[in-house]
Design a protein that fits this description.
- This protein has 560 residues and is α+β, with helices and mostly antiparallel strands.
- The protein has two domains: 273 residues, Jelly Rolls; 170 residues, no CATH class.
- Helices cover 13% and strands 31% of the residues.
- It contains ten helices and 32 strands.
- The strands form five sheets. It has a 21-stranded mixed beta sheet that branches. The protein has a four-stranded antiparallel beta sheet with strand order 27-26-25-29.
Length: 560
């Protein structure tokens, strides 16, 4: 049975375990993100966390690299719009990832584990990514292209599914999902070189120390040093900078469900602020990042201080369970282990502030302990109910899936067709011979296999018509264990029915009458096999006829 199943929404949501966050890495030009429809678009920042339902868009001559927590990479080229449609982790540990490209150019490189489900959505189809895959997506108003640079992926559309192998490209029309083309070559683009250079840079990362924390590890390998500490074990030391302290170069941004989250300005500032804590080692080692033992994403583990109009913070030590003194809590209180006034960073703060930026702050307390008090956290931001920014309509919303235990699901063809916007036929939309009439009230699938031509020119198409059934037309070979023949020679062998058994005749002076040969049986629904049956050579037929005469009868004739 195929690994397709659909779960009820309530049951699927109950299986969610923890939030997942991706990271904005290399970027150039104008990049913007939007967390929700009520939020305004804001500039994207390196090391900015992005989560499920986040939108990312790029301007002209812009590009951005998004690193996922399981090691995959999703890149956007100029004038592109994409959404992290599904980015969840179930309580079973399975990760569900659906990245949707609405327009523009995107690249994906990754190797999801066997337990995880990773899909890429484009208008008109989605791709089920397999291990060791590199692919390119290109979406315009009229066409969607999916090219497999390395590995293979399963292309799933409302009318069919097939394995798209390395070196091949599929072309689909979002407004006519029953028609697509296959190319045997992938035309090159200028952005291909940038994506390949980033793949080479990330491929050389030594992630053996912490294989589960591969995203952002390349930045640590490029700068800093790894050391073995008798107190903390394996730790990473950042480049030496005079008077440097953690949680100072960057800003806090508000995230629903997470609170104020640190976005570091240091190029390497991803893993050290969200997956571990900072320690100040002796013997001249300075600051060290000590990775955490679990994989949970942290907003930034610090102690907080409050004063009128300002807020302060500083790093907590590894393993430290500190909380401020409150009335009735005898075990709370005291100073954090790493607290020093010089290590505490201050910034202006007002209620419902979505951003806390220490850059250019004035009014820093000279004596933090005398002018400020410790706090467990800053007050939460009040979420406005009214939307403040228009959110575009995702054309690939038809590919959104619910979390699953095993596999993925897509909507029915009827639901997909109803959700697609009508588009006017552009140049090339009517290329090729006219479409035949529908077969049995169902449209037809036109699979084009043209010679490689530039995408700007209409391809030379060869049409193969096949009826669409109510389910999915599976174009893959038979699975193992199937009794149906897979090879043409095996199919011909299956067409020949078995010969009737020869009856055993007792010896007698007179030959016994020859029993009638049973009629050959042809499968009821296999008329094609009966028409295409190849007759045996004449010599074989003569030999078989002589063999069908009983032995006793041949001996009797010889004696006569």
């Amino acid at each position: 049975m195929r690994n397709w199943s659909i779960l009820a929404v309530g049951f699927a949501v109950s299986l969610h375990a923890e939030l997942r966050f991706a990271r904005i890495g290399e970027m150039q030009g104008s990049v913007e993100v939007q967390a929700a429809a009520r939020d305004a678009w804001r500039p994207g920042l390196r090391n900015m966390p992005i989560a499920e339902r986040f939108w990312v868009r790029t301007g002209a001559d812009a590009r951005v690299e998004i690193e996922l927590d399981e090691g995959s990479v999703f890149r956007l080229g100029p004038d592109s719009l994409a959404e992290i449609s599904d980015y969840t982790r179930l309580s079973t540990g399975q990760r569900i990832t659906l990245l949707s490209l609405d327009r523009g150019l995107a690249y994906f490189t990754g190797s999801p584990s066997d337990r995880d489900a990773t899909l890429l959505g484009i208008p008109g189809a989605q791709l089920n990514v397999r291990r060791g895959t590199r692919l390119r997506l290109d979406v315009t108003e009229e066409w969607s292209h999916a090219a497999i640079i390395e590995g293979q992926s399963k292309l799933i559309s409302p009318s069919a599914e097939l394995d798209l192998k390395e070196g091949r490209m599929a072309r689909l029309s979002p407004s006519r999902t029953g028609k697509f083309y296959l190319y045997d070559e992938i035309p090159g683009l200028d952005m291909d070189r940038w994506s390949e250079s980033r793949d080479r840079a990330l491929a050389g990362v030594n992630a053996r120390r912490f294989p589960a924390l591969s995203y952002g590890m390349a930045d640590l390998e490029a700068v800093g040093t790894w050391i073995e500490s008798s107190q903390f074990g394996t730790a990473w030391r950042p480049p030496a900078v005079e008077n440097w302290t953690p949680f100072r170069d960057g800003k806090w941004l508000w995230y629903e469900g997470l609170g104020y989250t640190w976005v570091a300005a240091e190029p390497w500032g991803w893993l050290p602020y969200h997956h571990g804590r900072w320690a100040h080692g002796g013997e001249g080692l300075g600051w060290l990042w000590v990775p955490s033992k679990d994989l949970a994403f942290r907003a930034g583990e610090v102690y907080w201080m409050r004063a009128p109009g300002i807020a302060g913070w500083g790093p907590l030590a590894p393993g430290e369970e500190w909380r401020p003194r409150v009335r009735g809590d005898a075990q709370a209180g005291g100073l954090p282990q790493l607290f020093l006034n010089a290590r505490t960073t201050f910034a202006g703060f007002a209620a419902d502030a979505r951003e806390i930026d220490p850059a250019g702050v004035t009014g820093r307390p000279k004596d933090a302990l005398a002018e400020a008090t410790f706090a467990l956290a800053l007050p939460s931001v009040t979420v406005a109910a009214a939307a403040t920014a228009a959110r575009p309509v995702l054309r690939v919303g038809i590919t959104r899936v619910m979390p699953l235990i095993a596999g993925v699901a897509c909507e029915t063809p009827a639901a997909v067709a109803a959700s697609l916007p009508e588009q006017a036929a552009g140049p090339g939309a009517g290329a090729g011979p006219p479409e035949p009439a529908p077969v049995a009230s169902a449209p037809s699938v036109f699979v084009g296999v043209p010679a490689p031509t530039p995408l700007s020119a209409p391809p030379v198409e060869t049409y193969y018509v096949a009826p669409i059934y109510t389910g999915v037309v599976v174009l893959n070979p038979q699975e193992r264990g199937s009794r149906e023949p897979r090879h043409p020679k095996q199919a011909k062998a299956a067409e020949k029915p078995p010969e009737p058994a020869r009856p055993a005749m007792p010896p007698a002076p007179k030959p016994a009458p020859e029993p009638a040969s049973p009629a050959q049986r042809v499968p009821r629904n296999d008329d094609r096999m009966q028409r295409n049956a190849v007759p045996a050579p004449a010599e074989s037929k003569t030999s078989r006829q002589s063999d069908e005469v009983p032995r006793a009868e041949r001996n009797s004739r010889k004696n006569q």
